[in-house]
Design goal:
Layout lengths: L9 H8 L3 H8 L7 H13 L17 E6 L5 H17 L2 E6 L6 H10 L2 E7 L6 H9 L4 E4 L10 E5 L1 H14 L5 E5 L5 H16 L9 E3 L4 H12 L7 E4 L2 H13 L9 E6 L2 H5 L5 E4 L2 H16 L8 E4 L2 E3 L7 H5 L1
Parallel strand pairs: 1-2, 1-3, 3-4, 4-5, 5-11, 6-7, 6-8, 8-9, 9-10
Antiparallel strand pairs: 10-12
């Protein structure tokens, strides 16, 4: 990424604002003893000068290496599993882990500078947003290593990401339902353009096509990986003139929404409708009946993300910019032979 030949300093910003260097430093460190108008002016000039805070040189001793795990939404079963994996790996390696929830990034340059000023060695990002060039450029300019968990998109081949074998998981889920005799099998997924959703959908379609089963357009619906989406899309599918006898759902949380939609119509699971989820979070085991699902190794993904982030921070080369860990079908009580539904 191109950078300015001369790097702005605190003195540069202070001179532009007509304040002392100490005042600019207070703004950077979030001190409260700065007048609101002065703070606003200094923050504006920091952005204008594209100020980048100094970071510790490689090899300098620091009290504790700290990695930030950032989520773009409230924590749920999926994100909690990943975070626990990061924390466990951090404890093993003696690395501090900080969690943050940031639902929007309006000023990417300021966001990146804040990470550096806070002493973060690297960033692990669990996001349902599309990564933008501005965000990636901001991180690159401050030399902040980034590892993304199951990104919505991969805008640059050099973005390091950790995921799972989503295609194989979608294939296994659908093959399981086909083996039980189901042919009217629907798919409810996340955002249509999401990389992980597309891979799960392709696995579903590949299994159906290999058995010569036609998939009606109304048997595929997309939204977000949330309970409410499962509830709404499940209700719409079950209201079709010829509803599915089985539904493969792109995440456990949405699968529970489909379960509730089925119960609202007086349907029994799995006697009247078989359901398969994806993730194998705690809610899959606590569901009634317990949910058949595709296990993503979420804790392992978190651990791999942390170790990869530290390698990037140390300037080491990594073997691959995208790593996929194996999925596994976990069969529980939410699926049954199609003859149950037919009787």
């Amino acid at each position: 990424m191109p950078v300015s030949p001369r790097r702005a300093t605190l003195a540069t910003v202070a001179a532009s604002a007509g304040v002392s260097v100490a005042t600019v430093s207070k703004v950077l460190n979030g001190r409260s003893d700065v007048a609101p108008a002065t703070r606003s002016l200094v923050e504006s000039l920091l952005r204008e000068h594209d100020y980048i805070a100094s970071s510790p040189r490689r090899g300098e001793a620091v009290a504790t290496d700290t990695v930030e795990v950032q989520f773009d939404n409230d924590l749920n079963g999926y994100s909690t599993e990943i975070f626990q994996g990061v924390v466990a790996a951090g404890a093993e390696l003696g690395v501090g882990v900080v969690v943050s929830v940031r639902k929007s990034i309006d000023h990417p340059a300021m966001w990146a500078r804040e990470l550096v000023a806070s002493g973060r060695r690297a960033l692990i990002w669990v996001t349902c947003w599309e990564l933008t060039t501005r965000q990636l450029t901001a991180l690159s300019r401050v030399q902040m290593p980034l590892v993304v968990i199951d990104p919505l998109n991969l805008p640059h081949r050099q973005v390091t990401s950790i995921g799972s074998t989503n295609f194989a998981g979608g294939l296994a889920a659908t093959q399981h339902l086909l083996a039980l005799g189901h042919r009217r099998i629907a798919y409810i997924g996340g955002p249509a353009t999401a990389t992980c959703n597309q891979a799960r959908l392709h696995g579903y379609r590949a299994a159906m096509e290999s058995e010569g089963v036609h998939v009606p357009r109304e048997y595929m619906r997309f939204g977000h990986f949330r309970y409410q989406d499962g509830l709404e899309h499940g209700a719409a599918m079950l209201a079709l003139p010829e509803p599915p006898t089985a539904i493969f759902v792109g995440c456990d949380e949405s699968a529970l929404g489909v379960m509730e939609a089925a119960r609202a119509r007086g349907l029994r699971i799995p006697e009247d409708l078989s359901i398969v989820g994806f993730d194998d979070t705690q809610i899959a085991r606590m569901a009634s009946p317990p949910l058949t699902t595709v296990r993503q190794p979420l804790r392992e993904m978190g651990g791999v993300a942390l170790r990869t982030a530290l390698r990037l921070a140390a300037g080491e080369k990594i073997d691959s910019h995208h790593v996929e860990l194996a999925t596994e079908l976990i069969v529980r009580s939410s699926t049954a032979d199609v003859r149950c539904a037919e009787h």
